[in-house]
Amino acid sequence: MSRTPDQGRNPGQGPAPGQERNPHRGPNGNATAAAGPRPNPHGVLPTPLRFGYGTNGLADLRLDDALALLADLGYDGVGLTLDHMHLDPLAPDLAARTRRVAHRLETLGLGVTVETGARYVLDPRRKHGPSLLDPDPDDRARRVDLLVRAVRVAADLGAHAVHCFSGTVPDGTDEDTAWKRLAETLTPVLDAAAGAGVPLAVEPEPGHLLATLSDFHRLRRTLGDPEPLGLTLDIGHCQCLEPLPPADCVRDAAPWLRHVQIEDMRRGVHEHLPLGDGEIDFPPVLEALAATGYQGLTVVELPRHSHAGPHFAARSLPFLRGAARTAATATPSVPPHGDPSATPEGSSTP
Fold first, then answer.
1. Rounded to whole angstroms, how far apart are CA atoms 105 and 306?
2. Residue 45 confidence (pLDDT)
3. Which of 265, 293, 309, 314 has an alpha carbon 20 to 30 Å from 272's alpha carbon atom?
4. What's the pTM value of the predicted model, to 2 decimals?
5. Which residues 6+ apart lie within 8 Å of 92 measured at CB?
6. 290 strand-pairing partners
7. Is the dihedral of CA 162, 113, 98, 139 positive or negative?
8. Residue 137: is it exposed, middle or buried by C-beta count within 10 angstroms (0-12/13-18/19+)?
9. What are phi and psi of 52, to 5 degrees?
10. Exposure b/e, 236-269, CB count within 10 A at least 16 = b
11. Which whole-number Å values give the CA distances from 10 to 59, 234, 322, in the listed order?
12. Phi, psi (5° rounding) for residue 147?
């Protein structure tokens, strides 16, 4: 069972506005502290973790209201899913609307990651369709266009990464063809990311072509290990299907880590659960994450809990902070595995 920190505390009670905010932030909440593990003499994690909450779990709120809620609760940032209700990437005047959101984030002191997992933003009849793997080249181009738009939005917002995923393998498509399509369709997105100076963080997603950390490394090698290509690590997905425990996944993923999503989950079941409702032991995960020197956002992802989004946002932050405090008093941090120049054969990563 999950280890639930601060059990004596009201889980719905967040800190007062402005309290316990991470001081290691510049404008837009971007990290300013130096990367890398640091001494841990007084129960402080080597690198202060920065927690966010995903707007896909606040879909019933206006974006301005969602951002204000997260700032009031004391979050460091937001995982902003571009969707019809939250900074619609296909509606007119995207640049002007993006500037307004950038100003709002700046005013509230929130960092941001741009996420692209909206279910029906491109097609009202196909969940997450069309994908990068679609048999129709025009449909694949629509997904590429969405991701390139997301890169531009991320650059204008000062986001630390753009998240995306591969999609499922279409019926009648063999895997070799699917991998070829994925490499081809991501190439212009990576070019845009390189030009904008914003990493593209691909997420291994259960049931998708790119489902595991091993699959991410296959893509990385196929593309020649381009500098803009990074990884979104979903901690729940590690619990669900990776062979290693989540904390070990964090250490193995460290050289490529650009974005982190977090929720609870059970082994073999792809269901995003509120923190404490599944099987993950969170302090070792957060200790491993801090030891890597990761300075992006760690974003709570509860997309099926929007009906009670404010409640779960208020509950999640005290849980994570309690787990981080527990981690800080544990055994000294283990250095991350490998480095960005390590070959797959020279490290524990595939």
1. 21
2. 77
3. 293
4. 0.82
5. none
6. none
7. positive
8. exposed
9. -130, 175
10. bbbbbbbeebbbbbbbbbbbbbbbbbbbbbbeee
11. 24, 27, 12
12. -70, -35
Element (H, E) at 100: helix 94-108
Greatest CA separation found in the chain?
Answer: 58
The answer to whether residue 28 sits within a structural domain is: no
Judged on CB neighbours under 10 Å (0-12, 13-18, 19+), 44 is middle
Residue pair 283/289 in contact by the 8 Å Cβ criterion: no
**CATH classification of the domain holding 176:** 3.20.20.150
Residue 224, pLDDT score: 97
Boundaries of domain holding 65? 46-334
The CA distance from 116 to 56, in Å, is 10
Torsion of the alpha carbons at 145, 147, 148 and 153, rounded to the nearest 10: 120
* Token pair in block for residue 155: 């650059």
DSSP classification of residue 31: B
Count of residues in the chain: 350
Q: What pLDDT, in 10s, does the model give residues 46-70? A: 789 999 999 999 999 999 999 999 9
In three-state secondary structure terms, 53 is strand
How many distinct structural domains can be found in the chain? 1
Residues of the chain with pLDDT under 70: 1-44, 331-350
Nearest CA to 121 among 83, 177, 150, 152?
83
Q: CA nearest 120: which of 136, 134, 112, 131? A: 131
Tokens of 298: 């760690």
Q: Report the run of H or E that residue 300 belongs to, with start and end.
A: strand 297-300
Q: Is residue 77 assigned to a domain?
A: yes
Q: Which two tokens stand for residue 249?
A: 């996944």
- Strand pairing partners for 25? 31
Q: The tokens of 117 are what? A: 């997992």
Is the link from the previous residue into 335 a cis peptide, with omega within 30 of 0? no
By the 8 A CB rule, do 192 and 146 touch? no
pLDDT of residue 331: 53
Domain assignment of residue 40, yes or no = no
Cβ neighbours of residue 308 closer than 8 Å, sequence gap 6 or more: none
